[in-house]
From TrEMBL:
Entry protein name: Cilia- and flagella-associated protein 161 isoform X2
Species: Phascolarctos cinereus (Koala)
GO terms under cellular component: motile cilium
Keyword Phosphoprotein: no
Highest taxon of the lineage: Eukaryota
Amino acid sequence: MARKNYRTCVRMGNWNEDIFLEETKLSITEDGFIHYGDKVLVINPDCEDPHGGQVVFGRLALSVTPEEMKAHISNDIEVPCEVTAMPGVSPIGRNTFIILSLDGNALGEPIRYGQNFGLATTAGFDDKMLYLGSDHKTMMKSAKKSWLQDVYLTDEFTYLTFWQATYFDPQLRIEYEGFPVPANTKIVIKHCHTNQALAANRKYSLRTYFGKECEVACHTHLDSHKSEKPLNYWVLCTGDPSDHSSIMLDRPNPSSEKTIPEEQAVSTDAP
């Protein structure tokens, strides 16, 4: 009788979805800051548009979103790969990102406002590294629904994948330049090459392999005071040291366990 032999490297069933959704552990910050090499969630905090039109609500996490057909037939993630903002902020393979230094020599050092860094993800794979990138929009390349500047994942770490953190309040932005970026605090993430801010476009939902999610684009949305709107706000979220399956944004904040406030970040000496 014929018998089929399967090696351990053979993957069967919907294995790639299991990889994307496998739980991950985020980095734990001991000094309250974000460091090169940290594993974080990139979260757009819950907000409501006073002008209406919003169709996606709640906290959203930046996520890897492969095309559904390619996810079924391919043993790898094809690039460029789409990026969306998913509802729910539990750390899993597809929404966990790594903070990278440009030369690889600053591992463990805090990133600072105005300093270039990279955002990368393995999407749960052991031998894959994808880098968050963007470029000027063209007639052939733009965000699917808003037609704004596209954001994608690529396997090439170039200037198109460099980003900067800026303080969310433009009136204090110069004062904070050069100081360490606090963890679990809202910031604006700007693309170095185009100077546009990363945005979760909550007016545009997309049907993805994982359900309805929010479009992500690169565009600085300003209000009447020339300040970025909440869809440009992001939080680099770390893990909860008391519960590795949870995040700091979900942790109760008694006075004895508060994370470092923004005012303390300014007291740290800038270079």
